[in-house]
Amino acid sequence: MTNYMKLELAAISENEGFARSAVAAFALTLNPSLTELSDIKTAVSEAVTNCVVHAYKGGENACVIIECRAEKTEAGGILHIAIADRGCGIEDVDKALTPFFTTLSDEERSGMGFTIMQTFMHEFSVESAKGKGTTVRMCKKIGMPETEKERLNA
Question: Residue 136, Cβ neighbours under 10 Å: how many?
Fold first, then answer.
């Protein structure tokens, strides 16, 4: 069985916690462990923060679009998350994925957002087009023994 949700919200820092909680609540249908739930919340928080801080740079009509799909499996489940913006886009995705890279070096930014997302999720990718926006896709395998997760990664 597959479940689905779509959420669109203003790209303001006040909504980051709501987005994180909404995705975590949706993930509960897969019965995640507290560690898995924490991983999901952390990755979503980083992705939404990237949209707010980098994609729009304070522009009006800024929004974050979150789509989730929950697939139940015999061993647990798989949570697919896509977080998108319609902002400025990323000029060089490979460079942006480099740990400690930030376009806002004059602010207190560590450049670890993408690295954190990659660390906490089983699958991760970034698609971006300059001037059109960015989509971060992540996948978390829920409630599966490591051998089953490895088999699904093959």
Answer: 25
pLDDT in tens, 68-90: 999 998 878 999 999 999 888 87
- What local confidence, expressed as pLDDT, does residue 117 receive? 81
- Element (DSSP H or E) covering residue 64: strand 63-72
Contact assessment for residue 119 and residue 12, using Cβ atoms and an 8 Å cutoff: no
* Rounded Cα–Cα distance for residues 93 and 84 (Å): 15
- Below-50 pLDDT ranges, the chain: 149
**CA 128 – CA 89 distance, rounded (Å):** 5
Token representation of residue 92: 């060089």
Domain boundaries along the sequence of the chain: 2-153
Residues in the chain: 154
Q: pLDDT digits over 22-42, tens only?
A: 999 999 999 999 999 999 999
- What's the predicted TM-score (pTM) here? 0.82
Q: Report the catalytic residues.
A: 46, 50, 109
Best CATH choice for the domain 2-153 from the list 3.40.50.720, 1.20.1640.10, 3.30.565.10, 2.60.120.200: 3.30.565.10
